[in-house]
Design goal:
By secondary structure, the protein is of the alpha/beta class. It contains 17 helices and 10 strands. Helix 6 links the parallel strand 3 and strand 4. Helix 4 packs across helix 5, helix 10 crosses helix 11 and helix 16 runs antiparallel to helix 17.
């Protein structure tokens, strides 16, 4: 055998062997790496968040209301199709609805644990604030948000049927803000007949939907209100508010009754208008400022004459009053008194205690309502020296009673 041929053959064999060794070494290292990852419990990259259609507006800072949040979640997790957050204007109804819906959206996407938070396949936000909202508008918003633009082009009756079938396929959450301003009755009928498994959440200044799971809001608790006051001071760069003494800030809490909108308005007046705290407090007590127009103007215009008379005498009472006392002060009697009080309670201008016996029931008003009603009474007094009458009394006489009780 030729020596060179032998050498060449050996070289080939050696090369093959070396290649095999390299392959085996690569496979061994790969196996060790896989074992090491397995031992460390390596987790595959998280899948992308689920695509959940939504047109929810951005959320702002939200403080407190843990009990109310839990109650709304409980309602949405129940078989009850309609939940209503009600309360006086500026008390935080919209903020609460957005906070709960936002948490539900994050839980539905898998961004936060769904611990007690209902999940939905889509979220539709509609609002009647500053505009008329008819059934056709609601249906169009549902169709477009859930990416069914063709449905929005259908005639109204056909469109409603298509949307109802869509809401039956998966659980969706429909939110209707400022429901009390909606005059289109078909919207109300649509909400009351919303097909399962979808749900509706509405906010309203009125307690009219007896078929709804009610979540009623009152002012923030003292600690929550003080936190909000300081937070607004920090946001606006007002160190005197952010770091103010509690005893001083409590005056603002008491004047606003813990209403978030009024708190933000008051702190804003100190920042933007350069007013002192005393000036702002005086404005709140005298119902001066656009905050009162926003909260009460529409409600006042909807009240009956008897209801207006009853409301204007409520500031006479330092805290709360019985039905008998209100009847004597307002000179509104029997069924007219019941209807007037009923309207005021329904619109959250008067709050009724929960006693079942009428003789024990007490009626009270929010501090902002007290200021507004007193201002209306003073306005009537200015119109006539003694011609204006409230419940059969001279308006000035009633006004003097109000001032004496302050």
């Amino acid at each position: 055998m030729d020596i060179w041929a032998l050498i060449a053959g050996l070289a080939v064999i050696v090369g093959i062997a070396a290649g095999i060794v390299q392959v085996l070494d690569y496979l061994e290292k790969r196996r060790e790496k896989e074992q090491e990852q397995g031992a460390e419990g390596a987790i595959a990259p998280s899948p992308p968040a689920q695509a959940v259609p939504s047109n929810l507006p951005p959320r702002g800072e939200f403080i407190g209301r843990e009990k109310e949040k839990a109650r709304v979640r409980e309602a949405l997790a129940s078989r009850w199709p309609l939940t209503c957050i009600d309360g006086i204007g500026g008390i935080g109804k919209t903020a609460l609805a957005l906070e709960v819906a936002g948490d539900c959206l994050r839980a539905s996407k898998g961004e936060i644990p769904a611990d007690g938070i209902p999940a939905f396949n889509g979220f539709i936000w509609t609002t009647a604030k500053d505009r008329e909202l008819a059934l056709n508008d609601v249906l169009d918003t549902i169709a477009r948000t859930l990416d069914y633009p063709g449905v929005a082009q259908q005639p109204l009756e056909e469109k409603q049927e298509s949307v109802c079938r869509l809401l039956q396929t998966k659980p969706y959450l429909l939110i209707v803000d400022n429901f009390e301003t909606i005059t289109d009755n078909p919207v109300r009928d649509f909400l009351l007949r919303l097909p399962e498994p979808s749900k509706a959440l509405i906010t309203s200044r009125e307690q009219k939907l007896r078929q709804a799971w009610a979540v009623s809001l009152k002012g923030l608790e003292q600690a929550e209100a003080l936190t909000l006051i300081r937070s607004e001071g920090r946001r606006l760069g007002l160190a005197a508010v952010e770091e103010g003494e509690e005893r001083v800030l409590l005056h603002l809490y008491q004047a606003t009754g813990g209403a978030p909108l009024a708190i933000k308005w008051a702190v804003g007046q100190i920042k933007q208008k350069g007013q002192s705290l005393d000036t702002v407090l005086a404005a709140l007590h005298e119902a001066k400022g656009d905050i009162f127009e926003e909260v009460f103007a529409r409600s006042w215009s909807l009240l009956s004459d008897d209801a207006q008379r009853i409301l204007m005498v409520m500031p006479i009472f330092a805290a709360s009053a019985s039905r008998t006392a209100i009847e004597a002060a307002s000179d509104v009697h029997h069924s007219a008194l019941d209807e007037g009080l009923g309207q005021l309670v329904e619109m959250w201008l008067v709050e009724a205690s929960e006693e079942l016996h009428i003789a024990k029931r007490r009626y009270s008003i929010h501090p902002l309502t007290r200021a507004f009603a007193g201002a209306r009474l003073a306005e009537d007094a200015q119109k006539s020296v003694c011609g204006g009458q409230v419940g059969g009394r001279c308006t000035k006489d009633v006004l003097s009673l109000v001032k004496s009780r302050k």
